[in-house]
């Protein structure tokens, strides 16, 4: 069994609050078995990090002999992500869970191809929500309908409407259960963790203030406060850029330090896909193989891709770029979500993209998989 490659990379301070005064770093020990299918894969645990407005690595390890054991320390329970990457570094899987002190057994769920978590006060509480029969039935109805749709089916308005309605119904059940914890649970940590389902955080700022007085500046509170301020700052800086509007120019440096600006690239091509991504974003990296096929098919016809990374560490950006063998223009400013470029576009989640013509006119947004192919075939 290899040792943990990296443990906690950053720790936020604690301050006022009776609860916080008693807080100190506490050990965690997470183990898993029956992971033979993923021998050689890299397991990662990341938490949200206000210093970059993104995620920070808590721990990682290579799975060997179908088992893993990860040890480390946390101040208090935090919302986190369990991720898997294959030996080539490609993203395989990601699932939310709660990084909390103590022992957890993290087993592979062969049926869902996800994870089952055994133990942990807060994991038990929130896992029970996801296993509620009413929610499970709604989720299965949505997933069944979604998997039955072809790309052609999805072009029909009635099909898209039903898809959206089924998704909404499942989401509303989950939202109501998180709301119940946030509004009624006597445990302040449980109420704090339930904030991850709140969409309009600024309307709940007073509630957060009360939790801060009770708990102190726990990492989860600091992050939520950051999100509120970040949304307000973005609203002031954001320029509305949608279909038929003109995209704003911006610049960045490639991995060799060469500065490039968007408008200069647009003028050299008929259509350019401006893609926002990051090394740590699993869904972003899952899109890259298809994007490479589209690039190979349409590049000679006047199609280019300009990717802008939300990484804050050059080493991680370089490693991911090499692992993915990215063939297109690849720039960034290493400021993550605090980048002026990212804030100008109002990017709150990735992947996100804009298809732009040579004059800077946006012709489509957030094209994925077959949608990108169809649009490019139509235009080129």
Automatic annotation (TrEMBL):
<keyword id="KW-0201">Cytochrome c-type biogenesis</keyword>
<dbReference type="InterPro" id="IPR036249">
    <property type="entry name" value="Thioredoxin-like_sf"/>
</dbReference>
<dbReference type="GO" id="GO:0017004">
    <property type="term" value="P:cytochrome complex assembly"/>
</dbReference>
<dbReference type="Pfam" id="PF00578">
    <property type="entry name" value="AhpC-TSA"/>
</dbReference>
<feature type="domain" description="Thioredoxin">
    <location>
        <begin position="241"/>
        <end position="380"/>
    </location>
</feature>
<keyword id="KW-0413">Isomerase</keyword>
<dbReference type="InterPro" id="IPR013766">
    <property type="entry name" value="Thioredoxin_domain"/>
</dbReference>
<dbReference type="GO" id="GO:0030313">
    <property type="term" value="C:cell envelope"/>
</dbReference>
<dbReference type="InterPro" id="IPR050553">
    <property type="entry name" value="Thioredoxin_ResA/DsbE_sf"/>
</dbReference>
<dbReference type="GO" id="GO:0016209">
    <property type="term" value="F:antioxidant activity"/>
</dbReference>
<dbReference type="GO" id="GO:0016491">
    <property type="term" value="F:oxidoreductase activity"/>
</dbReference>
<keyword id="KW-1015">Disulfide bond</keyword>
<protein>
    <submittedName>
        <fullName>Thiol-disulfide isomerase/thioredoxin</fullName>
    </submittedName>
</protein>
<feature type="signal peptide">
    <location>
        <begin position="1"/>
        <end position="20"/>
    </location>
</feature>
<dbReference type="InterPro" id="IPR000866">
    <property type="entry name" value="AhpC/TSA"/>
</dbReference>
<keyword id="KW-0732">Signal</keyword>
<dbReference type="GO" id="GO:0016853">
    <property type="term" value="F:isomerase activity"/>
</dbReference>
<keyword id="KW-0676">Redox-active center</keyword>
<dbReference type="InterPro" id="IPR017937">
    <property type="entry name" value="Thioredoxin_CS"/>
</dbReference>
